[in-house]
What we know:
This protein has helices spanning 22-31, 69-76, 90-106; strands at residues 11-17, 36-37, 40-47, 50-57, 62-67, 81-86, 121-124, 133-139, 142-149, 154-159, 165-167.
Amino acid sequence: MFDENDPSRRTWFVLHVKPRTEKKVEAALVRNGLWHHLPLYRKERRVQRRKVVTELPLFPGYVFTRMNADERRTMLETNMIVRTIPIPFPRRTVNQLRQIARAARGAPHMRTAPIFTVGEKVRITSGPFRNVVGIIVRDAGKTSVALNVDILGQAALISIDPNDCEPVKSTTIAQTRPL
Length: 179
């Protein structure tokens, strides 16, 4: 018979944590002597003429760990974890995390970006084109947003960072703001 609380029987989990508690959960994992991985990226911003650098979770709301049933129960008692998601293919996930860690060492300003498909309708969320609605196109390998002028049957292309867009659920493009 096997003991599910045996430290050698630890299972890989993704901890889905409450908003902005990733670093607190990481500290609780450290206190309990558990292996964990919380990929971070650096974000620079200006605050009153000063440059402030903060480290933020690359995957907000998620921390990776390996624990047994007792350790899982202890972590759930912290009241910071929404749910635990077992990792079905831990070897592949660990390899992906290693690749991300290696990339982060070479590119400390790495961050996640939403995945949009060509033809998807999006709203620009920042910059001079804020609230403009367009359609994602690929132009010379770059992500661009096509702003349609229906009456002319033409579109203007704007190269845009996918992080500056959000998907639009409605089917009309009439919500665009005049330029």
